[in-house]
Amino acid sequence: MDNMSTRGSMILHHSKGIKRKASPEKDSPRKIKRVAKACNNSVQNGILEREKCQIREDGETSFSVDTEKESSSNTSDVCSTWLSKTSTERKAAHDGAGSCRKKRRTSDLNETQRKTTEDTVEETTEDLTVNVNRFEDKYTEQNLLGEGGYGSVFAGYRKADHLPVAIKHIPKDDDLRTELDENGKELPVEVIIMLKLTGESVRAPVSLLDWYDLDQELILVLERPVPSEDLYSYLEVNGGSLEEEKVKVIMKQLVDAALDLHNMGIFHRDIKLENILIETGSDVPHVRLIDFGLSCFFEETSCFNDFFGTAAFVQPEYLSNFTYKAGPTTVWQLGLVMFEALHKNARFSTIGFLNRTLKISNELSNNCRNFLLRCLTIVPDQRATLEQLQHHPWLK
């Protein structure tokens, strides 16, 4: 599990990229969060027509629409603009919001209010100390596995039985997404989802073993299968690609896992080589899913306008309409994983696929090519569903 870091993230998450510790020199697509208004252009007529996209150096992206500026239909120009600009909008918005708040002076508090505040701080400090002590008493943290703008992940083990674990540190900041759980308690979305997956005993996702709420960060203690490596590293070890039959074994497990998540109303949003773990302890590769930091809950009618994911793999429908749905997005992401696994040293990008600089090999079997084409169909309504993929002849 030494190479459990990612091109744009790892077991770690969120809209900022995670650097591959083992290969820092690689050119890594960045994980992004974009916010945009939905437009009405069709996919066929509108792909890549919106230019005004800004990306900060930390990998986070905000996306806005300039309705007065003439749009460009040149894919390369749009891509160049999209991947070059630096955004300051989010920081400005954050700073502006803070300036609207009035500060209340301590001297305005009466003695009772002051005493209550002091008691609360004291109790909170005690709780935090207890949490830190509990974590340190139970786990040993070891070497760094991956790091990025949203924290870091370390290898470690549980002291009681030396069970290997991954220890994920997530800073508490403005980008930490929270929701109310079933009991009405506000929790990080990633924690809620991981607790739900662990409770349902779904096999593919790694399990959440423990989590700790500290003052400045969250600590998630996750299952760490040993021996294992992410699919990106697995391909590198195997010469850059895999034989079709081995890819079929992996894809069958991925489709089943994606369908399990879909049926539970969970949308991963960032399925890619680096977020797929391959257990290598047997002749047959076993697939595990990691990094649910960008995941969310959804309903069949849900339509998303805020983009979370990896820039290079953006769905075509988002480039045209700034909207996307869970099912078609997941199928698109399964397709890009399959493309990279089958084509030696291939680095998939949506722009390259739309420009036809990336092409599906003619050496693949007809059923394999058809399966891949069904995943990478440009128009989302014509893309295969997860159920259709599960029953596709290639997987039989």
From TrEMBL:
Task: Using the record's annotation, list all stretches that form the Protein kinase domain.
Answer: 139-395
Q: Where do the record's region annotations for Disordered lie?
A: 1-31, 58-122
EC number, as in UniProt:
2.7.11.1
Compositionally biased tracts (Basic and acidic residues): 106-118
The cross-references to PROSITE patterns, in alphabetical order and at most eight, read: PROTEIN_KINASE_ATP (PS00107), PROTEIN_KINASE_DOM (PS50011), PROTEIN_KINASE_ST (PS00108)
> Keyword annotations for this protein?
ATP-binding, Kinase, Nucleotide-binding, Serine/threonine-protein kinase, Transferase
Family under the similarity heading: Belongs to the protein kinase superfamily. CAMK Ser/Thr protein kinase family. PIM subfamily.
Superkingdom, taxonomy of origin: Eukaryota
Q: Which reaction does it catalyse?
A: L-threonyl-[protein] + ATP = O-phospho-L-threonyl-[protein] + ADP + H(+); L-seryl-[protein] + ATP = O-phospho-L-seryl-[protein] + ADP + H(+)
GO CC terms: cytoplasm
Q: Which residues bind ATP?
A: K168
Q: Which GO terms describe its biological process?
A: negative regulation of apoptotic process; regulation of mitotic cell cycle
UniProt keyword Transferase, yes or no: yes
The scientific name of the source species is Monopterus albus
Q: Name one GO molecular function term.
A: ATP binding
Protein's recorded name: non-specific serine/threonine protein kinase
Q: Where is the composition biased (Polar residues)?
A: 72-86
InterPro entries (alphabetical): Kinase-like_dom_sf, PIM_Ser/Thr_kinase, Prot_kinase_dom, Protein_kinase_ATP_BS, Ser/Thr_kinase_AS
